[in-house]
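Moderator note: this is an archived Q&A kept for reference. The question asked for a predicted structure of one protein chain; the sequence and the answer are reproduced below.
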Amino acid sequence: MKPIIFCDFDGTITAEETFVGMLKEFAPQMAAEIMPLLYRREMTLREGVRKMLESIPSRCYPEIIEFSRTKKIRPGFVEFLDFLKTQGVPFVLVSGGVRIMVETVLGDLTQKIDGIYAVDLGISEEYFKVHSEFEADTELVAKVKVIERYPNIEPIAIGDSVTDLNMALAAPVVFARDRLADYLDEYQKPYFKWTDFFDIQAQLSQRWNLS
């Protein structure tokens, strides 16, 4: 079984919650009302994230790109991508957030990534329209559906929050931090704790018997 990394973006690759920060900035009232419901799993991501995004005027699109430019990447990420390349292990980014934010933060690093799955925004109307190829059940981006596109693999999931829970429950190997670790404790699902991507690289080197 070939290992493939499936990694969240927001608060995982980024050192802070970029997408959540954007929602608080551009849809503050809606975010204050909906985010606690999402974290308590009293509203689905599919419904909540759509409501928040579609309350933002399309004219804010350039400002959101500018907002994304300043966001920092978590330590060890660039080295981790290079490590995976030397091992021939694909890296797939699965984000419940917005593609343009992902691509703006990553810049040229997108060329080192084997697939990016995220929410697209339509900006031709007064307010954003959400488009997602993998919308299903409770999720706007159903990360397990993305994993299912890759047959005969060992999925390795990396995440930090509620948007990563289904993916983490479906993957045999999981690296979890923050809220995701708490949710997995509830489910009694084993995982590796991590702080930065150097931790993950060290753990995988050990797992793959690399000196």
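Archived answer notes: The longest strand covers residues 91-98.
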